[in-house]
Amino acid sequence: MSHRGRSIAAKRSLRPHLMFQGKLAEALALWERAFPDMALTRLDDGAGPPASVEVQLAGQTFTAFDSPPVHDFDFTPSVSHFVACPTQEDAETLAAILGKDGTILMPAGPYDFAPWFTGATGVNWQIEVAK
Q1: Given the DSSP bridges, would you call strands 103-106 and 124-129 parallel, antiparallel or unpaired?
Q2: Taking 90 as the threshold, does the pLDDT of residue 19 lie above it?
């Protein structure tokens, strides 16, 4: 790669973008309970429920929006938000909040990865105690 190419690449940024179908406000309320230090910036006109936002959870920034059209797809379990918690108690509390009314994809067990579940808003999570 040329010097110019590295310079341009160093100025790029990458962040996840989540598309909801009518559940953005519900997700934001849930995340606010789970992550009390959540930072939120509305990217829409600010009227009514949020339609487009920039969110920061546990130091990770991403954007999210509510799609007006209904699509034949939703979130896939192959992409999850992986959260490392400082204590077992914190991990259990966070999993209870985010997993309420959700679906367990892989329960806690004797393997080298975190329990994996889909929350009620369709977002996939893995919660573990930091090693």
Answers
A1: unpaired
A2: yes
Query: What domains, with CATH codes, occur in the chain?
Result: 1-71 (3.30.720.100), 75-131 (3.30.720.110)
The mean per-residue pLDDT over the stretch 46-53 comes to 93
Q: What's the CA gap between 30 and 85, in Å, rounded?
A: 17
Distances (CA, A) of 36 to 60, 91, 92, 117, 126: 14, 14, 16, 21, 19
5 pLDDT band, cuts 50/70/90, is low
Q: Where are the beta strands (DSSP E) in the chain?
A: 17-20, 39-42, 52-57, 60-66, 81-85, 103-106, 116-118, 124-129
Share of the chain above pLDDT 70, in %: 96
